[in-house]
Amino acid sequence: MMNDIKKGKKLPKLKKIITQDKINLYAEATGMTDPIHTDPENAKNTIFGSTIVHGATLLDYISETMYASFGVLWLTNGTIDAKIIAPVKNNEEIVVEGIIDIVETMPDGSKKVVCVFNCSDSKRIAAHAITTVNLNSSLK
Amino acid sequence: MERPLKYFDDLHIGDVFPKYDLEITSELADKYFVAIDEDPYIDETNGKTMMPPTFASVFATGCYKKFIENPPNTLHTKQEYKIFQPLHVGDNLKIQSSIVDKFEKKGNNFLVFKAIATIDNELALISSATLLWGKQV
Fold first, then answer.
1. In sequence order, what are the beta bridge partners of A79?
2. What is the CA radius of gyration of chain B?
3. Which uninterrupted H or E stretch holds A35?
4. Judging by DSSP bridges, how do beta strands A14-17 and B108-119 pair with one another?
5. ipTM of predicted complex
6. What pTM value is reported for the model?
7. B80 and A34: CB-CB below 8 Å?
8. B75 and A22 in contact by Cβ < 8 A?
9. Quick one: pLDDT at residue B1?
10. Beta B87-88 vs B75-83: how paired, if at all?
11. Quick check: A25 and B65 CB within 8 A?
């Protein structure tokens, strides 16, 4: 788990390249096989002009940063509230940037950390999320 | 099982889908980690692979797809979850999903699904997803 947890601290930046192979694997694993994700020919005729990544994949990238920063506690009591703002097309690079926004001591003495994230492609912010993790959670 | 195609007008607030069992197999976990371009999380206390919470959230709110088919071009616009315990390969999730809201905005149709997942009757995850529901063509 990261040290020096305080308001304003930036979390490690994460970069991912979207590929059709990864989109297809995600579709196969989750059953989310809508043609807008998996059929490049069909997708050419949509308003997007190409296939787009599953929105939930962006949440996974945020989750990866949270796990890298807070370890198993993130997998134990984490929360996320995410809004997918814009579609991300195949072959784009996603940059995930997060910052600690609030460190709050709870009535039971535990510390709750609130982080704010943006996922951006080359043109714009594609997703925005607020995450929380409790640092003093007892592990199951 | 054949899944009927359901359009916006076919679905209603309060619709509850049957309970669905999801076993987190090692094959499924491997496929998921490759798809998100990430190394598996190993629980140092027992050597088991732990799953990202988004994994359960996606299956939980998407479990309606086991029972109905959504129209093409259905997209996630919002997703929320709260995790209550770590998820490991070998766990069996029992998931139930329902529609908790539906609305129209700027000519688009939205459905909000909420799902609860348990492991051995203990709460594991609460998740909701707002989907832009594909239109009838």
1. A132, B82
2. 16
3. helix A35-38
4. unpaired
5. 0.90
6. 0.92
7. no
8. no
9. 67
10. unpaired
11. no
